[in-house]
Design goal:
heterotrimer, A alpha/beta (about 450), B alpha+beta (about 120), C alpha/beta (about 525), A: about 450 residues, alpha/beta, Aspartate Aminotransferase, domain 1, Aspartate Aminotransferase, domain 2, seven-stranded mixed beta sheet, 14 helices, about 35% helix, globular, C: about 525 residues, 2 domains, three-stranded antiparallel beta sheet, 15 helices, PyrdxlP-dep_Trfase_major (chain A)
Chain lengths: ~450, ~120, ~525
């Protein structure tokens, strides 16, 4: 029991100071019937570090690691190279084992980092302000819908068909309980986004339009006309970015007048981790800041006039507002925000732009190569690092067959939209700086073989 | 013009059918440094006891209830930039909003300055 | 383009401040650090990237042309920047961190090592399930432990943190009530000592919250709670052990009464560390409880997340657990998502997050649980409770312990500011402790105790560490009782003195703005 410093001599001495005979005397308030008399049966006893490591390593080896295969999965989580110094720095005990910075005098490290993170995120998204992060992109998206309801005092949100279906699912789950009305639909397997349809759907009851950029099929389109249409009806435009690296190449939603921009920050610093923990990005126009959920760090001065940082505007939060809080959220995703921020600092604007250019060029080359496979058609015409192919057959069995051959070919739309026959042949392929030309060639050859 | 107080520490000055509402000196002293005030918009219909405004200090947020029923004619624009006015001049320049009273009879249920002073004394 | 227009560099003495004894503003190992926006540059990068392959742009007319304003640093500068920042933080690795209700226990590094195994860290959430069988098995093994330790029926793994878990539990309660045609139950009873997330969660789930008062011995007023039950009450949210650090002796009685009245019982499991291995919440009639993996099961707090908040359910609520979850069949582990939920899980109330939850926390928590085993986890709660009572009894003659007379505490000791000098409060004691090299206790929570000081030592502190803390707190408390004014300006030796929160909130500065540009705009 290597994590327990007390010795039996310590325990006996302490019981003496407390004035009780045995440890059981400290559990007297537990009703007799609920007291367990010894370790729970059927569970293993304590184990050495070596034994645990052996057990966990064996489990890890049952997975096909992304780095060990030609890998083309995206749809909300992307494989990027994370510099070694990122993981080293986030493991410094002063970051790793700190709590939420409620004692700012001894938490300036976390607070200054959060202030830098908020600024980086706001600049990346093109918004005036950003918060200190959310759980992930999907929860940030739902929180944005709730924020739009509070601002507009309207209860109908229009969700683009290009919004990640899991994000839609999360919003639907929550809306069942809050009473928000959501308009949703499945995407069509074509080159065009649904922006025109969204514009047509906005009316006087609309609180917001939620649009993903690039969307679930990888498509990109100018959001300005949509923002204008929203504002003409006093509705808000919420843009969702699941691939933040894209914003090193394409216009930020804030630049196109989106009111709230949320996103998934996993691409920078965080890694795939089978879906979590990730880091939700949340930015908005300055005028809405008091309706924003989540923690905020602000600049101030200490008693000696020195610059310092504190958590601020906390009266929006649950520990003060209780049932009137903007959200029930208590934590952010601090350590992932730190990883994001360090990676972004290492890249800088020049590096981010270069990284985005590599991703885009690689994706364009891969799209051209894969669309040469007989029967395969490139659906998306404008995209960043992710595009959709239409196969001559259902994509999902093909993905499974290729996985058996050690190739992680992409995300089949059949998995994301079960029961939508019109999408079943769609395959979403992501290409990043980690994808090599050989990987693309391997996929193309294998695809040709299994389709033949 | 006469001034009335509630047990929730709001005051209302009445001049004809126009009431001006704020929070008392005692209330501001309990709240500490006020950092934000959200006042109601013009035209908002309030019933006596409705949540009319929100006042926030660093560590607390409190609802301000309307002491009387009526229609809001103006929120104090100065509070947006200088919420500290509520600390400095709670019972004058730090007023929250003005409204047209719809039922002046409600005033009879409120305390006058002497009664309120006695009420605060006991807290 | 350089965006360093402020001219504020770490070597410049800090303007407007107290005169520094050094020219740099640094004091030996206490090093000042500027913002990346003041030391970085948009043309600098700390990574080496190849040239993009030749390809025709598919960006249409959406290319981002305007400057973004993101500064870069070289790798050595980056490492130094963040290392310097880290040194302005207090963490468990540095010293005693008795933050009540937060369970700041040691974070074992084996957890970190295991979470970083490529087979866990480098797998995609949408990878075909045949390629991630080991990951699903981790989820399933951890789920088995959580269900067994709590004596419950099932567990939802996906909630991202404690408050998210609370929401999951309350949504399941609402789904269950609606399924049996009792959607008219609209009230959730919450003790007034509850953590702020409880009422916030209930309100978010569409419920009205009614407070239940506490008794003089710091527990829920059982009689008042039972008297309030009725056909309009959906359920109760109770923290046990509660936020005063006490076990709710009547928990079983309360659960039975709530069930008899047609309601359901949510337990906030934030304080599970006090009873893990010794008491199973399932034996107390609980229907849903979240477990903070970042508290009881030692995953790092990370300066404010990420957390992880799996929720265990009773038989009554299991059918309503959210998607996704893992199932085992003869041919391996499966992920039950929207498409497969259909027949078997028609009651599932939906999806709470995009993917499967905090996998990185699952690997850490399972590593921790396997390290301790059933016997070790029992020892964990015993030592946690022993340490807390040792602190309670060592300090209850110095500070007022409002519930000290009612018997032992569980995992945390609660004091009030009752006998401090006039004008002195809990915050002064807390800031005095900072100067003594400790992280302060939780201040002003729970709200039911005036000037609450909530001290949770956890089981990973040695007796020597506790003894040193006791001596320090005794000394600081005596100073506060004697009215020592130097405490009012403490801390004196931290990287910063007390920060002006009023200034921060009145004129919020939430992002860095180039002072040069700001000046030009005026």
């Amino acid at each position: 029991m290597r994590y327990l410093p007390l010795t039996q001599i310590d325990r006996d001495a302490m019981l003496g100071v407390i004035g009780v005979a045995t440890i059981d005397d400290l559990f007297v308030d537990v009703p007799e019937a609920a007291r367990l008399d010894g370790p729970i049966h059927g569970l293993p006893m304590h184990a050495s570090e070596m034994a645990v490591e052996r057990h966990m390593s064996a489990l890890s080896r049952k997975n096909l690691t992304a780095g060990d295969a030609p890998f083309f999965l995206g749809c909300g989580a992307y494989k990027h190279h994370v510099p070694a110094s990122v993981d080293h720095l986030i493991q410094r005990g002063e970051f790793l084992t700190a709590y939420t910075p409620y004692q700012p005098e001894i938490a300036q490290g976390t607070l200054q980092m959060l202030f830098e993170f908020q600024t980086q995120v706001a600049r990346l998204l093109g918004t005036d302000v950003a918060n200190a992060s959310m759980y992930d992109g999907s929860t940030a998206c739902w929180e944005a819908i709730g924020m739009a309801r509070r601002i507009t005092k309207r209860g109908k949100a229009i969700l683009s068909s290009g919004l990640h279906p899991h994000y839609v699912s999360v919003a639907k789950t929550m809306a069942k309980f809050t009473g928000d009305a959501l308009e949703t639909s499945a995407p069509t397997l074509g080159a065009d986004t649904d922006i025109d349809a969204l514009i047509a759907a906005i009316d006087k009851d609309t609180s917001c339009v939620v649009v993903q950029y690039p969307d679930i099929l990888g498509r990109i389109a100018d959001l300005k006309p949509l923002a204008d249409a929203c504002h003409a009806n006093k509705a808000l435009l919420i843009a969702v970015v699941t691939e933040p690296v894209a914003l090193g190449a394409i216009k930020a939603p804030g630049e196109m007048d989106a009111d709230i921009v949320v996103g998934e920050g996993q691409s920078l610093g965080v890694g795939l981790q089978f879906g979590g923990p990730y880091v939700g990005l949340f930015g908005c126009k300055e005028k809405y800041v008091r309706q924003m959920p989540g923690r905020l760090c602000g600049e101030t001065l200490d008693a000696d006039g020195r610059r310092g940082f504190v958590l601020t505007l906390s009266t929006r939060e649950q520990h003060i507002r209780r049932e009137k809080a903007t959200s029930n959220i208590c934590t952010n995703s601090g350590l992932c925000a730190l990883a994001f921020s360090i990676h972004m600092t290492l890249l800088g604007e020049a590096g981010l732009r270069q990284l985005a250019a590599i991703n885009h060029a690689g994706a364009v080359a891969a799209a051209e190569r894969l669309s040469q496979v007989p029967g395969v058609e490139l659906v998306t015409t404008s995209f960043f690092n992710e595009f959709t192919l239409k196969l001559p057959v259902e994509a999902r069995p093909i993905v499974r067959t290729l996985a058996d051959r050690g190739i992680l070919a992409g995300v089949s739309l059949g998995r994301l939209y079960p029961g939508e026959d019109a999408l079943a042949n769609g395959l979403v392929v992501a290409v990043t700086e980690t994808t090599t030309a050989e990987d693309v060639e391997t996929l193309a050859a294998a695809l040709q073989e299994v389709l033949a | 013009m006469s001034r009335y107080f509630t047990e929730d520490h709001e005051w209302v000055d009445v001049d004809g059918d126009i009431g001006t509402v704020g929070i008392s000196e005692y209330a501001q002293s309990q709240l500490g440094d006020i950092v934000f005030v959200d006042v109601p918009e013009e035209g908002k219909e309030l019933t006596k006891g409705d949540e009319a405004a929100v006042v926030e200090s660093v560590k607390a947020a409190s609802d301000v209830y309307s002491p009387v029923s009526g229609t809001v004619i103006e929120g104090n624009p100065a509070l947006a930039d200088t919420p500290g006015l509520v600390n400095e001049e709670p019972e004058s320049d730090g007023w929250f909003f003005k409204l047209t009273l719809s039922d002046p009879d409600e005033l009879s249920g409120l305390m006058d300055e002497i009664a309120y002073a006695a009420f605060v004394e006991k807290l | 383009m350089s965006i360093n227009a402020s001219g504020w560099r770490p070597e410049a003495p800090i303007s407007g401040g107290k005169a520094s004894p050094t020219t740099t503003g640094n004091k030996a190992l206490m090093l000042e650090e500027a913002l990346i926006f003041e030391i970085g540059d948009t043309t600098t990068t700390g990574v080496d990237l190849v040239e993009p392959v030749a390809a025709t742009s598919r960006l249409g007319d959406l290319a981002r042309t305007a400057s973004i304003g993101l500064p870069g640093l070289s790798e050595p500068e980056t490492v130094r920047h963040y290392t310097r920042l880290s040194r302005q933080n207090y963490g468990i690795d540095l010293g005693f961190f008795p933050l009540g209700s937060c369970t700041m226990k040691h974070n074992p590094r084996l957890n970190e090592k295991m979470a970083r195994l490529p087979g866990f860290a480098d797998i995609h959430p949408l990878a075909p399930v045949q390629t991630v069988q080991g990951a699903l098995e981790v989820i399933q093994q951890l789920a088995h432990w959580l269900v067994t330790l709590t004596g419950m029926d099932s567990v939802a793994m996906s909630p991202k943190a404690g408050a998210h878990g609370e929401l999951c539990g309350v949504l399941a309660i609402r789904a269950a009530l609606e399924a049996r045609g009792e959607g008219h139950r609209k009230i959730i009873l919450v003790p007034e000592s509850a953590h702020g997330t409880n009422p916030a969660t209930a309100a978010f789930a569409g419920y009205s919250v009614e407070d239940i008062p506490a008794t003089a011995d710091g527990r829920v007023d059982t009689e008042k709670l039972i008297a309030r039950l009725g056909p309009d009450v959906a359920g109760v949210m109770i923290t046990n052990p509660n936020t005063c650090g006490l076990f709710e002796r009547d928990m079983r009685v309360i659960s039975d009464a709530v069930h008899a009245a047609g309601g359901l019982v949510y337990c906030d499991g934030a304080n599970f560390n006090a009873i893990v291995g010794r008491v199973r919440p399932g034996d107390l009639g609980i229907d849903a409880m979240h477990i903070n993996l970042h508290k009881t099961f030692s995953t790092p707090h990370g300066g404010g997340g990420p957390g992880s908040g799996p929720v265990v359910f009773s038989k009554a609520l299991s059918p309503f657990a959210p998607l996704p979850f893992v199932e085992k069949t003869d041919d391996g582990f499966h992920l039950v998502e929207e498409e497969t939920a259909g027949e078997h899980h028609a009651g599932a109330f939906g999806r709470m997050v995009a993917f499967h939850g905090q996998m990185g926390m699952f690997t850490r928590a399972l590593t921790y649980i396997l390290s301790h085993g059933a016997d070790g986890l029992r020892q964990v709660s015993e030592d946690a409770v022993l340490n807390a009572n040792y602190i309670l009894r060592s300090l209850d003659t110095t500070l007022d312990a409002p519930f000290g007379g009612s018997g032992p505490c569980m995992h945390e000791a609660l004091f009030s500011d009752e006998n401090l000098a006039d004008g002195f409060s809990t915050i002064d004691v807390a800031k005095g402790l900072i100067d003594e090299g400790f992280h302060p206790m939780t201040m002003y929570f729970p709200l039911v105790v005036h000037g609450a000081m909530l001290i949770e030592p956890t089981e990973t502190e040695s007796k020597a560490a506790l003894d040193q803390f006791i001596v320090a707190l005794r000394s600081v408390a005596e100073r506060a009782k004697a009215g020592d004014v130097s405490l009012k300006s403490a801390p004196h030796f931290a990287p910063r003195s007390r920060l002006d929160e009023t200034l921060a909130a009145r004129k919020p500065i939430l992002v860095w703005k180039d002072p040069g540009l700001a000046q030009a705009a005026e």
